[in-house]
Amino acid sequence: MAPTKKATKRSDAATAAPAAKRAKTDPNLAGVVEALEQAAGLPETCRRMLLAFVPHAFGTPSEDRHASQAEAVRMIGEAMQGVETTLKEGADTESDKVADV
After folding, report:
1. Taking the CA of residue 69 as centre, how many other CA atoms within 13 Å lie in the half-sphere pointing to its CB?
2. Residue-wise over 15-34: b if at least 16 C-beta within 10 A, else e?
3. What's the pLDDT at 47?
4. Which residue, 91, 85, 86, 83, is CA-closest to 35?
5. Residue 61 class from Cβ within 10 Å (0-12 exposed, 13-18 middle, 19+ buried)?
6. Residue 72: count of CB within 10 angstroms of its CB
7. Which of 20, 24, 60, 82 is 20 to 30 A from 7 (CA-CA)?
8. pTM above 0.70?
């Protein structure tokens, strides 16, 4: 007797999109990631590159870092200084508005 239930083909199962995996982030680096995401002056490709560097560059002790990891840390530091400057300017502007009231 022929089976009445249609068997699922592998290609049908493969078409279902798997759930996207989330990368585990170190909670100690969450502030660095957040600051890089706020960096308004960075092109999106540069931001993604710096975000990709974070776990590899900061996951290695500073004395054991390769020259490319040290350079990545320097670039991330520059981007974070830009974010800090932007936030300070915004805070100063708001403080001036409050002082005028």
Report:
1. 13
2. eeeeeeeeeeeeeeeeebbe
3. 92
4. 83
5. exposed
6. 20
7. 20
8. no
